[in-house]
Amino acid sequence: MNIILLGAPGAGKGTQAETLVKDFNLKHISTGDILREEVKKGSPVGLEAKEYMDKGLLVPDEVVIKLVAGAISGFGSRQGFLLDGFPRNENQAKMLEEKLCLVNRSINRVIYLKVSKEVVISRLSGRRICKDCGAVYHLKNIPPKKEGICDKCSGVLYQREDDSEKTVLNRLEVYKKETGGLINYYKDKNLLSEVDGDLAQEGTYALMLKEINNNCE
Ligand code: AP5
């Protein structure tokens, strides 16, 4: 089973992905995580990507598609995958189809997490991430047991640079302009399931499961 998680910044893609990949033994491919890893390493790709990410803009398609193609070819063809944060525009969607066709694979379902602007802003301003293991928390919704410390590995929690108010507003604009069109793109292909992403984590997950069970073999 190969799934795309589509949704605005802060819609809960990463949070829902964590449970979904465990329950269905999927390979999690998050372009945001891959790019942040490249930035951390200081690689040429990372240095280029950082300039776009800091402004809340999309990293050029050619850079991102190469990273995704590398990730997909990097594991066995029997394991399904979950794409989180990719594709982000029609060009990326088409490039993905071409790459998957070459390896005899295709997308089974696109889950669109629909969220309101108020929820997104509150989620992103309260998001905190573990520096060591990458676990994601929220100051109010999903708080760590001890303030500023990761429950899983005792690492220090930090705020993502692009979660500053100004960059968040820019990311939302970019999402509306560049990514919003993918909703109709996948609806036209009969692949889209729209799910209420404003609910608590478990409520949204239950709706996602229902869509997957009803639409994927
Ligand atoms: P990326 O990392 O993909 O960011 P994003 O799409 O903006 O999504 P986020 O990671 O911010 O949010 P999320 O939906 O995963 O929410 P989360 O689960 O963390 O991309 C970053 C940048 O990289 C882009 O701006 C771009 O520059 C570049 N990039 C990435 N992919 C690219 C591509 N394909 N092409 C070009 N450029 C690309 O949840 C958010 C918060 O809410 C957390 O605190 C969480 O605990 C909380 N929360 C989640 N769900 C719930 C819930 N149901 N109830 C209560 N709280 C919740």
Give an account of the 3D structure.
By secondary structure, the protein is of the alpha/beta class. It has one domain: 3-Layer(aba) Sandwich (Rossmann fold). 49% of the residues lie in helices and 15% in strands. It has helices at 13-24, 31-41, 44-53, 61-73, 90-102, 117-126, 165-179, 181-188, 201-215; strands at 3-7, 27-30, 81-84, 109-114, 127-130, 136-138, 157-158, 192-196. Strands 2-3-1-4-8 form a 5-stranded parallel beta sheet, with helices on both faces. It has a 3-stranded antiparallel beta sheet with strand order 6-5-7. Strand 5 (127-130) and strand 6 form a beta hairpin. It is globular, with a radius of gyration of 17 Å. The N and C termini lie close together (8 Å). 30% of the residues are buried. The model has no long low-confidence stretch (mean pLDDT 94). The chain binds BIS(adenosine)-5'-pentaphosphate. BIS(adenosine)-5'-pentaphosphate is lined by residues 7, 9-15, 31-32, 35, 52-53, 56-59, 64, 85-86, 88, 92, 123, 126-127, 136-138, 141-142, 162, 171, 200-201, 204.
The helix fraction, in percent, is 40-55%
Could you list the spans in which at least 5 consecutive residues all have pLDDT below 50? none
Overall structural domain count: 1
Q: What is the chain-wise order of helices and strands?
A: EHEHHHEHEHEEEHHEH
Mean pLDDT: 94
CATH topology: Rossmann fold
| Coarse structural class | alpha/beta
Strand content: 15-25%
Tell me the radius of gyration: 17 Å
- Order of strands in the sheet with most strands: 2-3-1-4-8
Distance between the termini: 8 Å
> CATH superfamily, called what?
P-loop containing nucleotide triphosphate hydrolases
> Quaternary state, please?
single chain
Broad CATH class: Alpha Beta
Per DSSP, the total helix count is 9
Bound molecules: BIS(adenosine)-5'-pentaphosphate
The assigned CATH architecture is: 3-Layer(aba) Sandwich
The geometry reads as globular
DSSP strand count: 8
